[in-house]
Write a structure and sequence with these properties.
By secondary structure, this protein is an all-alpha fold. The protein contains 14 helices and no strands. Its main location: membrane.
Length: 309
């Protein structure tokens, strides 16, 4: 009887502890979600608020004076839609070639029978810590005739070393018996890669694809370095940066009193703050729309791919 009472008390105590932990856990996660979402919601509210009114401050979760003026100003640029298409094309081609190229090299250095496995791995890893610098990279791109070319966005990023290590670690976790069976059936390395490695590596490939796609979509500095003299190859991020610079330049001559007076007028103008918020929303939405489709692979691919060193 005493033992039954003891176990009953233990179970009730454990249940109460779990209940308290769940309350704390849910409260913390809700607080974390609010902290993570608030900056984006605030930027959306500012982007949808009248620019002159935004100077007064006090905008938190919703616009005080709703308007589409900021978005009309940004999309009013003649080059913005062409730049958007270049960014989409760059992201799609760059992600596909980078993930495929990195996966092929990762499969090669994951094979135990590859003689130069250790040497090639070290050679790639060293590039994570040492590089020639900005000027040697520019001279290399120039010698390769990639200046003022769309392929300058694609070729230098075909192999990503960090992604290479992640994919290699994932492939090393695939049972060796599958590779042996494929070899017995007469499959070569390329067939094994296509029929076995790629299908089984879908979680880690989806994770790496998200990393590469975000990097390609957000990149603008390479446009500034290599294609700034070729407007038809300008990307969305570079055009948004240029619009923000023009807005900053137009506001640089205004004093605080001028800005306050402008905020009390009815003039339909934009400010660097409103343009920055609008840029944030425009640049973030495409990635936010893609992420839910890759979310189920994201955690699994990253954790399984990072188990081994």
């Amino acid at each position: 009887m005493e033992k039954k009472r003891f176990f009953k008390a233990t179970r009730s105590h454990t249940g109460a502890g779990d209940y308290i932990f769940d309350i704390f856990n849910y409260t913390f996660m809700i607080f974390l979600c609010i902290v993570m979402l608030y900056p984006f919601i605030n930027q959306m509210a500012v982007s949808l608020n009248d620019a002159n009114d935004s100077i007064k401050g006090g905008i938190f979760l919703w616009p005080r004076e709703f308007t589409w003026s900021n978005y009309k100003y940004v999309f009013g640029e003649a080059s913005i839609f062409h730049a958007f298409m270049i960014s989409v094309l760059r992201t799609l081609i760059g992600t596909l070639t980078s993930v495929l190229g990195t996966a092929m090299v990762a499969y090669t250095i994951s094979r135990k029978d590859f003689v130069f496995k250790k040497f090639v791995t070290i050679a790639f890893v060293l590039t994570m810590y040492f590089n020639g610098g900005l000027i040697p990279n520019y001279l290399l791109i120039k010698e390769l005739n990639l200046l003022d070319s769309f392929w300058v966005y694609i070729i230098p990023g075909i192999i990503g070393v960090f992604n290479l290590i992640v994919i290699r670690s994932f492939i090393e976790g695939i049972p060796e018996s599958l590779f042996e069976s494929a070899k017995i059936d007469g499959a070569g390395d390329f067939t094994t890669f296509l029929k076995i490695v790629l299908p089984l590596s879908l979680p880690v490939l989806a994770t790496v694809s998200l990393f590469v796609a975000v990097g390609q979509w957000n990149s603008w500095f390479d446009v500034f370095l290599y294609n700034s003299s070729t407007p038809e190859l300008s990307t969305l991020q570079y055009e948004l940066m240029r619009i923000l610079q023009n807005s900053n330049a137009s506001m640089s001559g205004k004093t605080a009193a001028d800005a306050f007076a402008s905020s009390n007028s009815n003039a339909n103008t934009v400010t660097p703050t409103s343009i920055r918020a609008t840029m944030t929303i425009i640049a973030s939405l495409p990635i936010i729309m893609v992420y839910p489709f890759l979310q189920k692979y994201f955690v699994k691919g990253l954790t399984l791919g990072g188990v081994k060193g």
